[in-house]
């Protein structure tokens, strides 16, 4: 699979977690030297994420999976769940603690986090819930909800789950108050920073009775306000 950056030049693409650091560093340097392209491309976003993943202790990323943004785009355009089924099976999604789904829609990055995806829908502590992180809350996050709920339904369908459509479409969905970007180009960096900070602090088992919906807002507001001014350097 190939990604295309400004100027029409194509780069061979490797899935998240498999990119070699040397090639990633080279692309990241080229991106930082490109003054025209301030907004992160999908390719460079994945390179950054691969490097971030390596910086996080293994015990923190245990049980966490990442759906590639190009795969999400393919799901939306092809209207097919065939590839989704393969991903669900290969990565044992329904045994995961957290599922991260970054997406770039209308030139803006958002990220869906699904917690407790394989747990009992009726549990008072460990039932599934979702957060949509948006660094530019101007209504797009709300408009995305029907499309994302349909995607989550197809996730469950791909895993041959027994939960009913009504249960799946009623999984709690929250758009937390989090630090907002001050320009129109840094949304990709904000998403990477949110992901990094979430992974370094999230509870091993997300307790919906205690952590939903306040954990994301309180943690990211407290810590991102300290680091966001220099987030590009931190990444």
Automatic annotation (TrEMBL):
Residues 1-33 are annotated as: Disordered. The keyword GTP-binding does not apply. It comes from the Eukaryota. InterPro entries: Papain-like_cys_pep_sf, Peptidase_C48_C. The keyword Thylakoid does not apply. Gene3D superfamilies: Adenoviral Proteinase, Chain A. GO terms for biological process: protein desumoylation; proteolysis. Keywords: Hydrolase, Protease, Thiol protease. Residues 18-198 form the Ubiquitin-like protease family profile domain. GO terms for molecular function: cysteine-type peptidase activity. Belongs to the peptidase C48 family. This is Ubiquitin-like protease family profile domain-containing protein. It comes from Daucus carota subsp. sativus (Carrot).
């Amino acid at each position: 699979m190939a990604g295309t950056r400004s100027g029409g030049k194509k780069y061979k693409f490797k899935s998240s977690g498999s990119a070699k650091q040397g090639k990633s560093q080279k692309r990241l340097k080229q991106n930082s030297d490109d003054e025209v392209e301030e907004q992160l491309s999908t390719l460079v976003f994945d390179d950054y994420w691969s490097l971030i993943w390596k910086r996080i202790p293994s015990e923190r990323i245990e049980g966490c999976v990442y759906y590639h943004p190009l795969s999400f785009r393919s799901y939306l355009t092809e209207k097919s769940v065939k590839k989704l089924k393969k991903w669900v099976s290969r990565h044992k999604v329904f045994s995961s603690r957290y599922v991260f789904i970054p997406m770039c829609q209308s030139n803006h990055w958002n990220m869906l986090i699904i917690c407790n995806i394989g747990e009992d829908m009726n549990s008072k502590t460990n039932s599934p819930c979702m957060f949509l992180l948006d660094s530019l809350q101007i209504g797009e996050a709300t408009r995305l909800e029907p499309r994302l709920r349909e995607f989550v339904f197809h996730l469950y369908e791909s895993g041959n789950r027994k939960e009913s459509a009504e249960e799946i479409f009623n999984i709690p969905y929250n758009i937390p108050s989090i630090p907002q970007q001050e320009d129109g180009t840094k949304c990709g960096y904000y998403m990477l920073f949110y992901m990094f900070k979430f992974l370094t602090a999230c509870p091993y088992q997300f307790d919906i009775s205690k952590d939903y919906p306040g954990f994301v807002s309180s943690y990211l507001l407290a810590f991102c306000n300290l680091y966001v001014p220099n987030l590009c350097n931190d990444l």
